[in-house]
Amino acid sequence: MILATGATVIASQAVISGAFSLAHQASHLGYLPRLRVIHTSEREYGQVYVPVINWALFAAVLALVLTFQSSAKLAFAYGTAVTGTIITTTVLFFFIARQRWRRPLWLVVPGAAFFLALELAFFASNLTKIGHGAWFPLLIGSILFTVMVTWFRGSQVVAAARKRAAGRLDALVDDLRSQDPPVARTSGTGVFMARAKATAPLAMRLCVDHLHSLPQKAIILWIEDLPTPRIKGADRLQIDELGYGDDGIVFVHAKHGYAERYNVPALVRHVAKSGAEGALDTRDISFYLSRVELRAGHRAGMQRWRKQLFLATALIGAEPADYFRMPRKRTITLASEIEF
After folding, report:
1. Is 288 helix (H, G, I), strand (E, B) or coil?
2. Residues 6+ apart with CB under 8 A from 2
3. Under DSSP, is residue 182 helix (H, G, I), strand (E, B) or coil?
4. Of 22, 24, 101, 108, which residue is most buried, by most CB within 10 angstroms?
5. What's the N-to-C CA distance of the chain in angstroms?
6. What are the tens digits of pLDDT across the range 244-258?
């Protein structure tokens, strides 16, 4: 009993840590919304705590215990989960071997066929007991797959709607030079978060159209998530003055690895050291964010139920200011509504 209890504690801790890490990385890759992540160690970056995932695991364990009531009834559910994981790992490994490592087909296909033949045999034997518990991991996997794919597709649809609302960045910069009366430029520096280089930040568009003002110096920051763990310091920032050297507007393209933690103020300090657009006083910087109120409409691109699922998934997302580690006292949020 002591050994079994100790093994259970070790296994459960591994599941919890793995779930936290996978959710954190899925968020960076765009398959989940931005989640609130707490780093519990100053030395180990991968030691994280994700509150929403922790409570989801708690609810899932309670449902599992109440449904199956004994570990003996979990045998087929466990077998299906393990063999399904092995098959998925094999497929991913040989996909990487072919696409990333450029191994020849004559080597990849026979190797994948050999392992998959054995693994599919074990998986199929567990499927004969779907009514005795094998349905559970299949159900969980299907739900997670549907949520993640829906969020990925919904993010693309919403990004397209945001792009239409914000307009092109080069057009906005040109309009600032030709508007009459001109847009008022207030003292200080503003950092506007962008989704891409071609699209204007929605918060910047709202400032120009509704407030008719803009900070004297404006930094448009686009953080691009890359499918690599970490980015070297020399490759992290690319700075562009957007064709005009006297308008106080600079575009910064920051590359970000999925294993790194966001820190916008630190990126701005690096921009200040580069000397772009003259000297920047990092103590007099305001951060501008746009809060988009989403409304499911009748536009093509997603089924109605998937739009509702996307909106429900968005509720677990973290506050952008916390996610990017922006100081709350210097963060300004402008709201807008988008129908998708």
Report:
1. strand
2. none
3. coil
4. 24
5. 55
6. 767 788 889 998 887
Q: Per residue in 275-302, is it b (16+ CB within 10 Å) or e — as a string?
A: ebbeebeeeebbbbbbebebebeeeeeb
Alpha-carbon distance of 333 to 321, in angstroms, equals 9
For residue 84, pLDDT over 60 is answered with yes
> What would the two tokens of residue 125 be?
């034997």
DSSP annotation of 199? B
Using only C-alpha atoms, the chain has a radius of gyration, in whole angstroms, of 24
d(CA 41, CA 130): 42
CA distance 134 to 139: 9
Amino acid at 249: I
Residue with tokens 């919304």: 33
Type of residue numbered 38? I
pTM: 0.78
Q: Quote helix, strand, coil % in the chain, to nearest 5.
A: 55, 20, 25
